[in-house]
Amino acid sequence: MDASLKELQVKVENEALVARKLLSEVQNVIVGQEALLKKLLIALFAKGHILVEGVPGLAKTLAVKSLAGAVNCHFQRIQFTPDLLPSDLVGTLIFNPKEVKFEPKKGPIFTEILLADEINRAPAKVQSALLEAMQERQVTIGETTFPLPEIFFVMATENPIEQEGTYPLPEAQVDRFLLKVVVSYPTFEEEKKMIERMGQSVIPAISKVVKPEDIIRAQGIVSQIYADPRIEDYIVRIVSATRTPEKFKVDAKGFIRYGASPRASLYLLYASKAHAFLSGRPYVTPEDIKAIGLDVLRHRILLTYEAEAEGITSEIIVKRVFEAVEVP
After folding, report:
1. How confident is the model at residue 290 (pLDDT cuts 50, 70, 90)?
2. Beta strands in the chain (DSSP E)
């Protein structure tokens, strides 16, 4: 390990304490869901956003709310409904009779950590307003453009049960999320422990263990994590294999309508760096890419009707891609 990597190793070890503090504090409240909590931290440290799909009652809201409490960040929760308007999210112009002019009134999107609950219940205009703000990190109200806070992290949730009266996210727009995580039911032991903890007269409370500036500093270290040219080549080959599976001998003929976009390559690199950071390493390994690859790619591969008819999911395709593409 050369001198620069050794120096980076020390920085990573110091800043990784922030992640451990956060995870430990949130786990005082949340039982199980360790994978979700780690993915939340990966998205946060990689300056990305996360889409979480799962049935109600799996602590999705509690997880991000606890994270916001532990970071001592400003937190807003928006319950998306079919009658929501873009102005309810980003804000609008309000007439000031004293000054005889319109003044901007900022909406709840001007926060550091935002929970967009049941995003698929809101109409396309509202979804677009949120996704545009996520991408541009700024909001225009009237003729004035306002930057969003330096820490701006969105966790959106989707309920897969009720599809009637919902507005599925446009497939091209879902690409704006760094990760899409599918949350499953807790194990028997986890659920038992949850009942024991939450059944007490005093429910555990979250303490503020990290400052926003700690998160910003850690994000800077994550961006410095080293990725060897062979690792970058591996990432590009994985993403290319979703577009031309036959070239990489992936068993997916006739199943893929559209492969992952170039944004997937960038996001896979960012997420892998954040994963390496949480592992306390100053460099990315193929294991980092494999560990986070499914969550980066599952929502970026559009399947054909033949795939759906045969019960082939994007998760199956991603697993086949990782099996076929040679590891450096």
Report:
1. very high
2. 50-53, 75-79, 91-96, 101-106, 113-117, 138-141, 144-147, 153-158, 179-182, 256-258, 302-303
In the chain, the N- to C-terminal Cα span, in Å, equals 19
Write 91-94 long-range contacts (CB < 8 A, 24+).
Answer: 91/139, 91/141, 92/141, 93/141, 93/142
Tokens encoding 51 = 């889409």
Min mean pLDDT across 204-208, 266-270, 319-323 is at 204-208
- For the chain, give every residue range classified as CATH 1.10.8.80: 225-324
Report whether 118 contacts 157 (CB < 8 A).
yes
> In CATH, what class is 225-324?
mainly alpha
Q: What is the mean pLDDT of the segment spanning 292-315?
A: 90
> What is the model's pTM?
0.90
- Could you tell me which residues come within 8 angstroms of residue 33 by beta carbon, excluding any fewer than 6 positions away? 58, 59, 63, 183, 186
Amino acid identity, position 5:
L
Do 201 and 294 meet the contact criterion of CB atoms below 8 Å apart? no
Phi, psi dihedral angles at 57 (to 5 degrees): 90, 15
* Domain over 3-214 is classified CATH 3.40.50.300: yes
Residue 192, amino acid: K
Residue 8 Cα distances to 5, 13, 221, 269, 328, angstroms: 5, 9, 8, 18, 23
